[in-house]
């Protein structure tokens, strides 16, 4: 009886009837595409009408979309902010219109009063989980790392860099030799890695590649192979997201570690919104998702299959 009561309570579509606007960044990565599809599924499951706007990586498009949602009088707005700055004005307009805003997966540099809650990972921790893995893996061996950063000015790029640097600080054998943005895309990851390989004696001087997301890592893996080296062996590969393609690379021995970022930010966001609308009680300001490390010891083939079934 207990279990069935819980099932009734927690699957009830109590946010049913709401109209929610979702300003998504774009579709730069496999993770982003998964977040979009999971958000749509979560809305449908709860009887929420989701108005979706793809900003194609441009903050100005996100601002336009948010203004459009306000004009339409939506009940709430979800926004995955492409960069951290420049949100005060438009979120102030949403606040004046009494429309709660929930941030998904990235943060902003603005007053916390401008949003109801933020559902995201601890991005500094993600970087430090990746860095700790590398520290443990290389031991005392000298290790020159190349870093592929995410979108300039985005919180995951800023924080994942910081966390990784903190983890390797104090380990004098490990240093970041080169660091450049790959904009979270596979094609840019490949292109930037090609440059790193050329500049580093055809890659022979590189011990590890740290990418702020798996898509850039997958692009970089291709560049490493094209340069005649073995990714995962000649150059260690560590990244963040845990999307199916990185598990495929892991199963092939071409990637060494990834830190999971759940694409289901919308589930906790809709739960918080629902509770807020029912009780008026402010939810936690930051709802933090987990950052679990996966390595080839964690059944990469199984993880690949499992994720394929989850909307990736
Ligand atoms: O904000 C989350 C990051 O954005 C993901 O790690 C990356 O894949 C995406 O583009």
From TrEMBL:
Keyword terms, alphabetized? Signal
Q: What is its main location?
A: other
Please list which residues make up the signal peptide. Answer: 1-15
The record's subcellular locations are:
Cell envelope
> Keyword Cytoplasm: yes or no?
no
What InterPro entries does the record point to? Peripla_BP_I (IPR028082), SBP_2_dom (IPR025997), YtfQ_transport (IPR054837)
Instruction: Show the GO MF annotations.
Output: carbohydrate binding
GO CC terms in record? cell envelope
- Cross-referenced SUPFAM superfamilies, in alphabetical order? Periplasmic binding protein-like I (SSF53822)
Identification of the protein by name: ABC transporter substrate-binding protein
**Organism classification, top ranks?**
Bacteria, Pseudomonadati, Pseudomonadota, Alphaproteobacteria, Hyphomicrobiales
């Amino acid at each position: 009886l207990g279990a069935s009561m819980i099932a009734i309570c927690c699957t009830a579509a109590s946010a049913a009837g709401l109209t929610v606007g979702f300003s998504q960044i774009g579709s730069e990565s496999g993770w982003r595409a998964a977040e979009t599809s999971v958000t749509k599924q979560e809305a449908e499951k709860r009887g929420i009408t989701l108005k979706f706007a793809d900003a194609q990586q441009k903050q100005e498009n996100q601002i336009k979309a948010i203004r459009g949602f306000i004009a339409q009088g939506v009940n709430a707005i979800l926004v995955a902010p492409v960069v951290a700055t420049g949100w005060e004005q438009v979120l102030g307009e949403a606040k004046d219109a009494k429309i709660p805003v929930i941030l998904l997966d990235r943060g902003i540099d603005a007053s916390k009063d401008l949003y109801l809650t933020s559902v995201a990972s601890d991005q500094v921790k993600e970087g430090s989980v990746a860095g700790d893995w590398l520290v443990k893996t290389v031991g005392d061996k000298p290790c020159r790392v190349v870093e592929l950063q995410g979108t300039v000015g985005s919180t995951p790029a800023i924080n994942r860099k910081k966390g990784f640097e903190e983890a390797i600080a104090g380990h004098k054998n490990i240093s970041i030799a080169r660091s450049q943005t790959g904009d979270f895309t596979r094609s840019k990851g490949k292109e930037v890695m090609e440059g790193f390989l050329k500049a580093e004696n055809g890659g022979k001087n590189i011990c590890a590649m740290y990418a702020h997301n798996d898509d850039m890592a997958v692009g970089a893996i291709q560049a490493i192979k094209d340069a005649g080296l073995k990714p995962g062996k000649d150059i260690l590969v560590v990244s963040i997201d845990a999307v199916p393609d990185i598990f495929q690379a892991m199963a092939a021995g071409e990637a060494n570690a990834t830190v999971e970022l759940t694409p289901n930010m919308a589930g906790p966001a809709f739960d918080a919104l629902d509770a807020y609308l029912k009780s008026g009680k402010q939810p936690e300001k930051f709802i933090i998702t987990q950052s679990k490390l996966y390595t080839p010891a964690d059944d990469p083939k199984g993880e690949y299959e499992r994720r394929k079934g989850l909307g990736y």
